[in-house]
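Need tRNA pseudouridine synthase D's 3D structure for a figure. Predict it.
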Amino acid sequence: MNLGEKNTIFKPLYSLKHSPIEAYFSKNSEDFVVREKALYEFSGTGEHLILHICKKDLSTSEAVSILSQMSGEKIKNFGYAGLKDKQGTTFQYISMPKKFKSFLNDFSHPKLKIVEIFTHHNKLKIGHLKGNSFFIRLKKVSPLNALKIKQAFTILENQGFANYFGYQRFGKFQDNYLEGLEILKGKKVKNPKLKNFFISAFQSELFNRYLSKRVELSHFAKDFSEKELARIYNLSKSEALFLKKQKHFFKLLKGDVLGHYPFGKCFICEDLETESQRFLKKDISVLGLLLGERAFKTTQGLAQNLEAEIFSPFNEFIPQMQGSRRFMWSYLEKSKMDYDEKKAHLCLEFFLQKGSYATTILEELLHQNFD
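Structure prediction for tRNA pseudouridine synthase D:
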C-alpha cells in the first residue's frame, strides 16, 4: 500500500452521508471545554499529590513546565493520565511528589488554576483515566442547519461513531506518520519520546485507513445487492446476505477481533448472528489493529483479508513496535444538545471513553475538516 507523498493527505470516509453543514467552531476557552474523568477514586494517603487543574490555552506539557518551575521539582517526577488540547479550557489531573506541597500556598498563574488537591499512593501514568466530557459551542448556526445537526447528532447517539484518530495525532501538515515510517526504516532519532510519538502516528494512520475501508464496506452492504457484495468481497451468497441483514450500520465480519465495551478481553468473532445481537445492544464492539508484536491477531475470514490489504506491506516492521487493539466503533455517552436561535449558538455536550477525539465527532456532524 502506498502511503502517499507529503502533500497527499488521507481523508477517512464519514459514516453519515449528508452534505456539509455550515457552522463556525473555534477552539477557545469559552467555546471548547474538556473535563477529564479519573479512572479511580484517589486513596487519600500516600506520597503523591494529585492536582486537579484548570488550564486555559496551555498544553499539558506547558502546564507541567509551569508547575515544575514554580515548585522546583523536576519535570520527570510529574505524572498525568492524558494529553489535553492547548486551545480551550481543560480540566485534568496532574501528580507530583507530596514533599513539594508547600509551594501551593502561594501558587498563582493567569492561565492555570488548582481546583482541588488529593493525596494518592502512586504517580499518574498515561491511560489512568476513564475518559473526557466535552462542551462545544458552535456559532452562526441557522435554524435549518441546527435541525440538520440535531438529526445527525441523534443518529450518532443511537448508532455510534467511527472512532478515528483525530488530526491532532498527525501534526500541522498531517504527515507525522511519514516520519514514523522513516524511523522504522532506520532513520536515527535521539529523543526516545519523539521517536515513539512518530511511530505511534504511523500506527494511527494505518488504523484510520483500515477503519475507513470498513466504513466503506458498511456503506456497500446497505447500497449494493447480495450478488454485488459477493463479487466485490469474494463472499458466498449466504455471507453476503447476512452482511446485508445486520441491523447496525457498522457491519461485523467473521474473524473480527471483538471486545466487551468499553473495556474487556479480546476474542475472535465466530458466531456472527450472536455477536451481531450483542453489538446492537452495545455490549461489545470491534477492535482495529495498531500494528506490532503484542497485538491480538485475527486468523480467519474476510476480516483477515481486509487487514492484510492495509497492514501486510509493513509486516517487516512489526518487531519494532509493541502493537495493540483499539475500538473502531465507539459511542457517545451523556449527550445533549441546546440551540439558542436568537444568538445562533448551538451547544453540544457528551462524554467519550479515553482515546476518542471530540473533533472526530464534529467532523462527522458537520462534514468539515478542522486540520
